[in-house]
Amino acid sequence: MSSTVQPLFSPPAGIELVEIWPGGPLDGIVSRMTGYRETARRHIRMREPASLTVPLILSFGEPFAIGLGRPPTEADRIASFAAGLYAGPVLIESFGASACLQIDFSPLGARRFFRMPMHELADRTILLDDVLGNAGLALRERLGNMPDWESRFALAVDFVSSRIGAGKTPSAEVREVFSGIDASGGRAPVSRLAARAGWSRKHLAERFRAEIGLGPKSVARIVRFNRALAAARTGNCNWAGIAADCGYADQAHLTREFQNLAGLTPAAWRAGLA
């Protein structure tokens, strides 16, 4: 685990954010842990584009409202939960009194922790006790009673480390194909990667859904889109150039993917970074 808890630079007003990047036995399984606390009573709206993160939210404040691909309603309020991969934007609302510790699992590491077929978690949120039982509820209670983020992160690292030993790792073939997708920025043909792994495209799709949560084409689509987001964050707003560099047919293709995976036009997404 990183030796110190790192506050995030320039968090939004009224929000406390801190992070760690665990290493050691959690390397490749957990990409990040984040502490989140709202410090001012106000209505907060957030939007998360599609990503390859499988989050576990351990809440010790008021519930969030979570909408998959749409604005959330009162019926969507949920406190502690896990969420699988989703090929679309996630809209989040809170009201100034939420606090949580979020554990972000990698797509190849999530199955070892959750010990379930990952398609059962994809495209949805599931209550904490339905995925971790009483152990998860006890963890949440202990986190809420701790005095600082450093203590909470240490407990979370210990909890995750204690679970992953008995979990199943993705198959060598799934790992190989995922690596090929990631290394190519989502541009490598899935049929070629499947043939290299010695599987049919149908069997590969079935194994990806079971071991990661989405099929390989959906995973490749999200990888490519996140490469485009990363390029745009560097200050390069030549959308036609980004589209070409990331393997889109043209700028219109990239714009459609923004609408599908972020729920915004490229210009609106970029304006939200300001």
From TrEMBL:
Transmembrane segments: none
MF term (GO), any: sequence-specific DNA binding
InterPro entries linked: AraC_XylS_family_regulators, Homeodomain-like_sf, HTH_AraC
Pfam families per UniProt: HTH_18 (PF12833)
Keywords, alphabetical: DNA-binding, Transcription, Transcription regulation
Domain HTH araC/xylS-type: 190-272
PANTHER family: BLL1074 PROTEIN, HTH-TYPE TRANSCRIPTIONAL ACTIVATOR RHAS-RELATED
Protein name (Swiss-Prot/TrEMBL): AraC family transcriptional regulator
